[in-house]
Design a protein that fits this description.
By secondary structure, the protein is mostly helical. Helices cover 74% and strands 1% of the residues. It holds the Pfam family MFS_1.
């Protein structure tokens, strides 16, 4: 459930940073619907003569055609293969625990997935400039080659340090190279239909999170780990090699070279929203990492447990698409707080009390939906609380960086709590309804998500104290 779909705000920021597209005027913190005021803004810029570049009319955005949709198709396939395998790390976590890394703790194994994902979150701070120099195809090609090479090295890895270098570092960097171009490209070709285009690309990561776990679960027993991973490498390389020629940027490079906006630290709404992301990040990925092992502890067969991650990601597809619609209709912060709360409710009300496989599957569906919704809406909220439109990209990167510590440390902390509880639990070797090894980790995850939801509520009320206002 990587946060690839995080940001309509960051998608739209590229044009705004480039200084070529005046943004629609805002009324009460809300951008006017259907781009009202855009033409007036363009006219004002023309009359003032202060713009260094000629404004681009919104009519120049293709918003369709084979080139535009070809870009979206290419981005979607890369999203499916690159971020799909990131979302499938729970399969590797469970496999390593009983095979190559059976002597390592759950916390040590989870560092592999955490480092891989955190590289995505911090990559945007530097890759924007690299994108200006080498273009989208350059970064995507480098990412494709590095990712494929790293997965092939993973198929040969036997020890912890070998797996860490190939999967956490090598594959993490490869996917990170592809992350920022996929954030930027849709905004080059779509404006009126951008939500649809972004939704398609974002859904690709969740679809990959469904396909890859099922594929690996079928192949591990039939052809072994090494050849299963090589099959994944082949799929990644072929689909990405086909996709890259269809992808091309069309707008000038960004002029705003800032990587950090210190003025944001003086704004209460941005700080509280960043704290929401910071705390929520500690709990977002732990269920994805450990749900397969938890299913087995509740009496599930290994085959059904494999599907738990696919179920969570399938629910995430619905969450990503529906949350965008709800945010457009009712307001971003009006959507963010309920889905942030739903994550915490799912953990405390369902996961901690699950004593059967059926209850765990219900948790997978609800948490998968809520976590994907939160990830999709949270970063797009940054644009709404940013006054200077040229700083949207910078502040989105700052928000994602605020989530990085939780993404890096959350699953390992949960793994350490799991190991500690296992050493104290009388039923550590048992399983079933009497197995409470996961309880401390579940409480930790739930507490972090409650804190994240609380700061979401604070930010919502800071925008407007009226509950009937669309914010």
């Amino acid at each position: 459930m990587t946060d690839f779909g995080t940001s309509t705000g960051s998608f739209s920021s590229f044009q705004e940073k480039a200084g070529t597209i005046p943004m629609p005027k805002e009324e009460n913190g809300q951008v006017s619907k259907n781009g009202e005021g855009l033409q007036e803004s363009i006219k004002e810029c023309d009359e003032s003569g202060q713009n260094e570049t000629q404004p681009v009319s919104p009519l120049t955005f293709p918003d369709g055609g084979w080139k535009a949709w070809g870009n979206i198709a290419g981005c979607t396939l890369i999203s499916l293969t690159a971020f799909g395998q990131v979302n499938a790390f729970g399969v590797f976590q469970a496999y390593y625990a009983v095979n190559q890394l059976s002597d390592n703790t759950a916390s040590e194994i989870s560092w592999i997935g955490s480092v891989q994902i955190v590289l995505l979150y911090i990559s945007g701070l530097i890759l924007g400039r690299v994108l200006d120099l080498y273009g989208a195809r350059g970064l995507l090609s480098a990412g494709c080659l590095l990712s494929t090479f790293s997965v092939l090295m993973l198929s040969l890895s036997k020890t912890y340090y070998q797996i860490f270098l190939s999967q956490a570092v090598g594959l993490g960097l490869g996917v990170a190279l592809q992350f920022y171009p996929l954030l930027v490209i849709p905004s080059h070709w779509f404006r009126a239909k951008r939500s649809i285009a972004v939704g398609i690309v974002v859904a690709g990561s969740s679809v990959g999170g469904v396909v890859i776990p099922i594929m690996l679960s079928r192949l591990f027993d039939k052809i072994g780990f090494a050849w299963s991973v090589r099959a994944m490498a082949l799929m990644m390389f072929v689909l990405q090699a086909i996709s890259i020629p269809f992808i091309k940027e069309r707008l000038p490079p960004t002029k705003n070279k800032k990587t950090f906006d210190f003025s944001a630290l003086k704004e209460g709404k941005f700080l509280s929203h960043s704290l929401s992301g910071f705390f929520s990040a500690f709990g977002l990925y732990t269920p994805f990492w450990y749900i397969e092992l938890f299913m087995e502890s509740r009496g599930s067969s290994a085959n059904l447990a494999f599907y738990s991650i696919a179920i969570m990601n399938a629910a995430g597809v619905i969450g990503r698409v529906s949350s965008g619609y709800l945010a457009d209709r009712f307001g971003r912060f009006n959507t963010l707080f309920p889905v942030a709360s739903l994550q915490a409710i799912a953990v405390f009300a369902i996961w901690t009390t699950s004593i059967s496989v059926a209850e765990t599957i219900v948790f997978c569906i609800i948490f998968g939906f809520a976590s994907a919704s939160y990830s999709s809406v949270a970063s797009s909220c940054v644009a709404q609380i940013t006054t200077d439109q040229s700083q949207i990209g910078t502040r989105t990167g700052m928000f994602m960086a605020a989530m990085a510590p939780g993404i890096l440390a959350g699953p390992p902390i949960s793994g350490a709590l799991l190991s500690l509880r296992s050493n104290k639990s009388l039923s550590a070797e048992g399983g079933g309804a009497g197995d409470y090894r996961y309880l401390w980790a579940q409480f930790f995850v739930g507490a972090m998500l409650v804190a994240g939801a609380a700061f979401s509520f604070i930010t919502r009320m800071a925008c407007s104290r009226s509950t009937r206002v669309r914010v």
